[in-house]
Amino acid sequence: MRVLLAPRPQPVAPRVLAQTWLLAFLVLALCAGTAWAQAVTPARPSALAIMLRWAPLITWGFLFNVMVSVLAMALGTVLGLPLGLSLIARSSPVRLVGWGLTQFFRNVPWLVLLFYMMFLLPFELHIGAFVLPVPAWLKAVVGLALPVSANVAEIVRGGMQSIPEPQWSAADSLAFTRWQTISRIILPQALRRMLPPWMNLYAILTMATTLISVIGIQDSLTLTRAAIAAESRPELMVPMYLFLLLLFFAYCYPIARLTMALERRVQVRG
Amino acid sequence: MTGPVVAFFTWLNDRTGLNFSVFTDSYDGGRFLTGLITTVELSVLSMVFSVILGLIGVWMLGAGGIRTALARGYVQLFRNTPPLVQLAFFYFALGGLLPTLADSHGAQVPVVSGFGWAVVSFSLFAGAFNVEIFRSGIEAVPSAMIEAADSLGYTRLQLYRHVLVPLGLRICLPSLTNNMVNLVKTTTLAYAIGVPELLYAAAQIWSEEMNVREMMDLLLVVYIVLVALLVWTMERWERALRVPGYTP
Questions:
Q1: pLDDT-derived band of residue A14, with 50, 70 and 90 as boundaries?
Q2: Do B89 and A245 contact (CB within 8 A), yes or no?
Q3: Number of folded domains in chain A?
Q4: Residue A15 has pLDDT above 80, yes or no
Q5: Cβ of B80 and A248 within 8 Å?
Q6: CB–CB of A249 and B219 under 8 A?
Q7: Average pLDDT over residues A80-98
Q8: A10 in any annotated domain
Q9: Most A CBs within 10 Å: which of B70, B74, B85, as the mutation test of the A interface?
């Protein structure tokens, strides 16, 4: 049995990490370099010192972006799984509704959906006697989770359809119900194939979280712009934005590499 | 707007309070139409430049040496950073470094407008994805074809022009359609730097007319129609390009 398995690809994690850190270092050096070159005027704090002063705050804002992305991904996955199952349902009205929802949320710009949620979700919920406030960032999470759920649905459908048809008929002949077939036979096998595109979607979502700054929530981009405005030193703009780009790159690039490695591993060889 | 449309939406407003001012007020209608045209222009220009960038990138990927490394670096950098931050970087940081010119009224205007930076930024962003898409298409071309071209004495440029690009393009058209749909949706980011595209025009109208919900609904419908038109065109193109009997 062992010989039938495709050779395992070399572990890539250490090499990837080394590359990422090397790149991170290079970009940081570039930021510092630009800052250093511009730090010629005496009496004023150097651009590098200013960068270092603001870096923790911008990193803090970036962690907020990460939190929003994790929450939106969780909610989107929870919503997307049943939506994906509806796409391969046997009843055609269910399929039609699922298809309509998926197409709608996949084809509408994320920013427009975010605006929609910001304006149209209530700012507090009345449940019986309780009044629950709905903060803006929670609305943003919902707004981001909707397009994510439609994309998760497509991933679920693709993963389930990639499982060979004989698996379905074999389960049928063993008298599994449809639900048992899906939950015990098809989904466990499909999950492996769904993981790479799901991670890819997560990286896209993380980058999309900066959109919340447009609708007035304080995130890393808002903080970067505030820092630039507070210092009123136009020469700081390039290093500041490069620093923010670097933060996202250092987070998303390893995910992309890991996705590619996983993809090669679950690839079906002809 | 023609009579019956104005009459219908005026009636709707009187009857239900749904204020579609875009159809009843010619000023709002004009602004919305300008926004629509800007969005279409932004999308088409970015599409054209991103495809050109994708072709250059995939050519460089196969060239070896420093050019391969450059193309790889470009793709990874633009794929793994947020497009909104890229746009901010181009418009605020790089745009701030460029000199300003005096226009005919003597006012200082930047050399590259917000619209220009948006085209640059979106083309680079979508172009990075196009490089990967074209690469996957070219890799799917059977190696026998490449060997045949080699044995016929094709140069590398001829190989790309007559074999790899025509065949690879047909294979990767569905992925290209996907990326172009994404690009149309990404053009809404131009709102953040004040380019008067569709979302910007809608926001201006709803803050004056207080018809947020109606404008939002209209926006969603317009974007769905724009994307549907694009997908329809691309699918027609895909059918027109299909080589009967050839499946790679």
A1: low
A2: yes
A3: 1
A4: no
A5: yes
A6: no
A7: 93
A8: no
A9: B85
Q: What are phi and psi of B109, to 5 degrees?
A: -120, 145
Answer whether residue A22 is part of any domain: no
CA distance B9 to chain A (A): 22
* Residue A65 domain flag: yes
How buried is residue B112: exposed, middle or buried, by Cβ count under 10 Å (0-12/13-18/19+)? Answer: middle
**Span B42-93+112-216: which CATH code?**
1.10.3720.10
Q: Is the pLDDT of residue A13 over 90?
A: no
At A205, list the tokens.
């979502």
Report the pLDDT value the prediction gives residue A2, as an integer from 0 to 100.
42
Question: Residue B33 above 50 pLDDT?
Answer: yes
Chain A contact for B109 (CB, 8 A cutoff): no
Q: Taking CB atoms and an 8 Å cutoff, what residues of chain A touch B81?
A: 207, 245, 248-249, 252
Considering only residues A22 and A185, tell me which one the structure prediction assigns the higher pLDDT.
Answer: A185
CA B112, B113, B114, B119 dihedral sign is negative
Task: Give pLDDT, residue A146.
Answer: 95
By the CB < 8 Å criterion, does A26 face chain B? Answer: no
Per-domain boundaries in chain B: 42-93+112-216
Structural domain contains residue A11:
no
Stated length of chain A:
270
Domain extent, residue A198, equals: 46-266
Q: Which of A151, A241, A267 to mutate to test the interface with B (most CBs of B within 10 A)?
A: A241
CATH assignment at residue A90: 1.10.3720.10
Q: What is the pLDDT of residues A151-187, one digit of tens each?
A: 999 999 999 988 888 999 999 999 999 999 999 999 9
Can you tell me the distance from the alpha carbon of B6 to that of A266, in angstroms, rounded to the nearest whole number?
Answer: 58
